[in-house]
Design a protein that fits this description.
With about 280 residues, the chain is α+β, with helices and mostly antiparallel strands. The chain has six helices and 14 strands.
Length: about 280
Amino acid sequence: MKKLFFPLLSILLFVACSNDYFHFGKEKVHVILPDFTLEFDETCPQLSGWHVEIYSESEIREFFTRDSGFDIYVEKNEVGCVLATPIVKNFAGEDVIFFKPAGNLICEIDFALGNELILDWYKGYCSYLVKVFFDETDLENGHNEETWNVLACFNWFKMIDVMEERVLDCEIKGCFYNPWVIAPETVTRQIALHSFRASHLTMKQYFELENLCDNKIYSSFVPENKNIKKNHKILIKQSEVNLISDYNLDSIIVTGTAIKYKIKYAGMPQYIIGYE
């Protein structure tokens, strides 16, 4: 029995320490998901869980969770982001993705005040832009160094500051700010060309559509749903395809301008398979 003690002890120590070994030199960070129900009233869709995506220099992965938070391991000053897209039940009880993701940038972690990263709906837009650059960089295969340099050198802090200013300005003016009205590809193009300006986060060429379906609709940008209920209007990108939803989470497509627009009930939700 004594002969087996030390080998068994070594195995137990390895199992206990292996998690710390694989994350050596990294900081443990607790990611906090937003409260989905806070942005709705009694019409809140049933939340099934979250599709989480992590993009960083040290790992790129995705997973499903029903928890209100989870832990990740990152290096200080690491470039990257965390995205969490809500998965909800439609009228038929099927899991669908319709709403835009919440998110935050890893550089937003204040390690001096506590290792937490709070995901936010507005920062989900900025995080999506980071994801686009990671997809183009293809770090796993060591490709596209030029794109990586753009991603690593861009002032993401400044972008978040500008967005927060836009939100505040709209609140003062009594209007609503939805960053997704601004095409993400337009912003990433300007960042890649080193010509990004604060004005690129200003909403342009949009109109407010009022009294659609007696307001029994959802915006894909979660915070806008409170505004729909309060002001009976939704922001629509002018001359582009806009995807909104009815309370059954069936698709409604809106195109056109404030003067002449077209509404089409497509009834085509995006289904999620394999999360149960």
